[in-house]
Predict the 3D structure of the following.
Amino acid sequence: MAQGRDSSLHWLREEGQQDKQVGFPELFFDLIFVFALIQLSHFIVEDFSFNRLLEGGIVALALWWVWNHTAWVTNWLDPARMPIRAMLFGLMFFGLLMSSAIPEAFGDTAPMFAGAYIAMQLGRSLFAIYAFRNVLPAVRRNFVRVSLWFCLSSLFWLWGAFSGEETRVIAWLVALGIEYAAPELRFFVPGLGRSHASDWDISGEHMSERCALFVMICLGESILAIGRSFAEEDLTLLVVATFVGAFLASVTMWWIYFHFGQAKVRHEIEETDAPGEVALHVFTYAHMPVVAGIILVAVSAEHLLAHPAEAGDAARAAVILGGPILFLGGNLLLKRMSTGRLPRSHLAGLALALVAFPPAFFVSTHWTGLAGLAALLLVASWEYRGLQRTPHASGEVGELEGE
């Protein structure tokens, strides 16, 4: 074997390397997103409007996309190797710049936000091309295509960064549209063809654990937001009740995702004959609404604790009920993909949240928050009853529910 091949092969995870468990360098890298999510939460809470929700959604999609692409790369490359660690530390540096720019991402710090994002996405993909030299040629060709797609989207990120706010929103939406469409189009490039999911031989357990840890980071940020906001308010009966409800919402979301869904998804992807195809839809796309839902629940908790008796309107209803709706919708999609069935519990929870939406325009926001919590509790209690009917068989609950 040639020396170059030996060197690059040395950067890959070894076959059966502790089931490709998540290592400390990856966890260290994830800490950047704790700060990013706190920044994003403050950014949305400052101005409860549909325009701010749209801008916050753009930031959230960018954060998810840069994290998700990094998780795919470290599924193949071993973070215990010094070059891979150096890559992660470099990404952390630019991630810190990007996160710092979030409060004024659509204002004065737009160039810093876009520039840091481009540096992370394009830099990591170019590094992967070098890392896979002489090994895994199909994966290396895939990252050549990925890099070219990021070059295309970068033009729109830069265009938006140096344009006015309205043009910036449009340009960045186009950039994200290009990037999110690329995997479904298999990163097709004229002259280079397209990638094949069969080439994406990944560890389902590693990807499942990575996504679960990101969900845990989002839940952790919601706990921080609840505690921070509660500490700043005067203690009244309504504030205390809102605090209890917000905490219950976070615990309930943990229950719904971790007590059954996450383990089932991990098992299914390990058993499938096409892990790359399943991972693309389960871990790249289906987790997006789960993460977005948790972020919105954290934002709504922060707002409710500060303004529990404020009159409702469309924007507040969209945030307060949009969190449970997105979270339950994402879990519904995950469980549909892993079990082949639609859980009745999730459909009922979604129906309750949607029914509560029109009245939320006319009642105080704490009642809307209670409706969102009720939708989450309905799903959690329904699944719990299913588990109780089948002791020691939590993995079977989906079949009992019609999942």
